[in-house]
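dumping this here before i forget
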Amino acid sequence: MPPVIETSRPVSAEDLSPGQFVALSRITYELIPDDPDSPWRQDLIPQRIRLMPCDAGRPLKVIAISVPFVLVRTPEGTPLTLDLRRVELMRLGAVFGREAYGRLR
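structure:
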């Protein structure tokens, strides 16, 4: 039997459900420039920076949802609350998610 190849896809809050496996894709940080001569500093305009986290792709299991918050569990069993206004999630394929999550336990 050939190996199963699944595709991870971006997932929105409405499409999340408990038991799904997800992974962080991007995290958005808002920073206020601390350069006193910066024109943005005078107006306190935050600068948004989107970064890929070092642990992007690490499987997380969705436990509960209260938009915009999602409670997930790491493979080690640690619960985390994610704010969907700051993070972008990818839905992992069921086979990959189950296998990766189980092996990282």
